[in-house]
Amino acid sequence: MNAPPSSQFAEPRIDVQALLGLQDPADATDWGPIRAAQLHAGSKLASFLVIANGIGAVLVVAILSHTVPLWPLAIWGAVTTLASVVVAVRRHASRHRSAYSARLNDIRQTLLDGILLGVVWSIPPIFTGLRGDTATALYLCVALSLLMTTSAIAIAALPLATLSFLAILGGATAAMMLLTESPLLVPAVLAFTVVLMVTCFTRAKALVLLRASEIAIAERDETVSLLLREAEEHSSDWLWETDAYRRVVRASPRFAASVGLDVETVNGKSLLEVLAGPTWKASAFPPELRQLAEFLKGRDAFRGLVLPVKVGSSERWFEITANPRYDERAVFIGFRGVGSDVTEQRASADEINRMARFDTLTDLPNRLLINETLADAMADAAKWGSRCAFMMIDLDRFKAVNDTLGHPVGDRLLGRVAERLALLMTDNEIIGRLGGDEFAVVVRDAGDSARVERLAQTIVDALGQPYDLDQHTLYTGASVGVAIGPRDGRTAEMLIRSADLALYRSKDAGGGTYHRYEPQLHVVAEERRILEQALRHALSNDELHICYQPVVNSMTGRLIGFEALVRWTHPELGVVSPDKFIPLAEDARLIAPIGEWVLRAACNEAARWPGTARIAVNVSAEQLHHPGFVAIVASALSTSGLPARRLELEVTESVFMRDDTTAVKVLDRILALGVRLSLDDFGTGYSSLGYLSRTRFSTIKIDRSFVTDASKGVREAIAIVRAVIALAQSLGMTTTAEGVETEEEYRMVRDLGCTKVQGYYFGRPLLVEDARDVALRAAQDLAIA
């Protein structure tokens, strides 16, 4: 359906800040000519501005002459006249800066004109107001109102100057009425000033709309003219005709010009000789020209035949169509056809084809071309009984670069990575970008498997070197997966799958390495797939349960609370380690429903414990970035009746890596509920003291790896534990040592000043009934004590 007529003439949207000259708009509108129109309109009324200021000055002098000595009035009048002349000269000068365009700064400078006039004209009303002369103030108010009106007309095309002038003078006039004890006139003066400012802004907007429409019409007319001129000048259609001996007859001037010859030279020559050009004598014809010769020889009609033609030193492409001609006696008398130069169209098609097969960011082959190249390599390997290889490359820690420095820096980093990879390739390999931070290499001849592995290691080493970008030194390694065809896959899809599995193993090993595909990897992937399918039904099948590990006071050994730890027992797979199913739940986006279930179940159980024992629940980054997570926590507390102070949520530093602003806001809302926060695994990831300064954590947990190493006398680990404890004490936080399993470890962390202890030394994770008994005994012991 056609749009209603009113929508066809809808008023275009004008950017207010651009209209005032404060900034350039974000859209594609060219404001240079519009600003020039504003300055030109202001210059045309510059003389009127001088006259209006002069008349206004005379009126003010006449009004104040009976109360003010003549010499200060004369000085003020001269200053006012000089100011108006300066503004008028500036306006006239601006008209000659550029006839068609003006800069943003040209409009901004008009603010000085408005301020200058406003300040000068504010002197009489302020002076009169301070004297308290009511009668003079009324006369002066009328005169200034006339001045404001005429000045608004004179410089309305420059809203920044006009609005500043009106605001200053209107404010001064209102102040005068207030000082002369005429408060009822103050609203009238302010309302009059606002009306003038709105009127001025409306006039300025109308001027901009008019100029924008004129520019649009002019651009449209220019575009139409250019298109018509281009069609006339660049049309490449021409007619051609041959006799029965395939010689050109009655050559058209356009045909002769297309092949770079004159009409006399073309007539009588063989069509094949004309089109072959310099290759005619060497008989080095392209296959398309041989096909044309077959058509001519067989007297067959043809259509859309595209030929490469050498015209001078350049190669052109012609598209020709023709039909055989016969006389009234059915005797063949030659061909007649039409041709056109399609070089530009072919170049465009080639560019489109290139864009479809090359990555725009790195200029490397994209996924489509890589897949085609791999399919060709697989076909050649099957044909000749050889081998090819495929490598999948994934950058390590690239997401951290994007999250911390932004995507523009990430894009430039990808460009540098592509440059390094391209330098490592030979004629036997082709490197491409699959998307994101994934690259791939196709090795056409992989008969030497050792050479393929050396290339993989070289890629890992090269991409592990630092990058200097925008005054940042970036470190991002690479993980590589290698698959050899047809051993690891008889089709391109199977080989890619095998390389992906090998890459997954490299990532799982911590990155910065490469792995070759092994059949066992497929078994592991299948096991993972089965495990994921089973995990999706674990909640509904009531296969998950919670164990509770005690947390005790390091000095007294008394119970402080428990940490809730989820466990999974599958009817067929048996007990599944949390180290397996927790990362799987995070990858499969199942951690949110599982985490919510753990939170609610733990709160319900803790509410039944006597005393003040707290319950700690781990929260993943996925949960924390869920928009409804705070409501879930509040609901769990409300439903269970557990006091908020007895709930402690444990988060790791990974929650800040995606968007620390969002994480901090969510944690602040959780703290507002009265819930405690604990920072888990501090020092094992992308540690930053900024996390501690932006969020009020109550506890820092020391990872068991530091505890174990410190108990063995590792100086670095001891230093880290001491530093974390000292940091926590200075910030008013407690510390919890995890994984304490021996008397020696317990005494060490206690002596270092650790507040709380958790580990097998004090108790393994307990079933719910056992935890309930422990909480009951602790409450009784506390009551006795």
Describe, in plain words, how this protein is organized in 3D.
The protein has 785 residues and is α/β, with parallel strands linked by helices. It has 33 helices and 20 strands. Strands 12-13-15-16-17-18-19-20 form an eight-stranded mixed beta barrel, surrounded by six helices. It is flat and about 100 Å long. The model is unreliable at 1-11 and 222-234 (pLDDT under 50).
Major sheet characteristics: 8 strands, mixed, barrel
Average pLDDT over all residues: 83
Q: How many individual β-strands? A: 20
Tell me the strand percentage band: 15-25%
Q: What proportion of the residues is helical, as a percent range?
A: 55-70%
Our count of helices gives: 33
Task: Write out key terms for the chains shown.
785 residues; alpha/beta; eight-stranded mixed barrel; five-stranded mixed sheet; 16% strand; disordered N terminus
Any chance you could write out the topology, listing elements then pairs?
Elements: H1 5-8, H2 16-20, H3 32-44, H4 46-64, H5 70-94, H6 104-108, H7 110-131, H8 134-154, H9 159-179, H10 185-234, E1 238-241, H11 253-258, H12 263-266, H13 271-276, H14 279-282, H15 287-298, E2 302-311, E3 314-326, E4 332-341, H16 343-357, H17 367-384, E5 388-395, H18 398-405, H19 407-424, E6 429-435, E7 438-443, H20 449-463, E8 467-469, E9 472-474, E10 478-485, H21 492-508, E11 514-516, H22 519-536, E12 544-553, E13 559-570, E14 574-576, H23 578-587, H24 591-606, E15 614-618, H25 621-624, H26 629-640, E16 647-652, H27 655-658, H28 660-672, E17 676-680, H29 689-694, E18 699-702, H30 704-711, H31 715-730, E19 734-737, H32 743-751, E20 756-757, H33 768-784
Parallel strand pairs: 10-11, 13-15, 15-16, 16-17, 17-18, 18-19, 19-20
Antiparallel strand pairs: 1-4, 2-3, 3-4, 5-7, 5-10, 6-7, 8-9, 12-13, 12-20, 13-14
Helix pairs in contact: 3-5, 3-10, 4-5, 4-8, 5-7, 7-8, 7-9, 8-9, 8-10, 9-10, 18-19, 19-20, 24-26, 30-31, 30-32
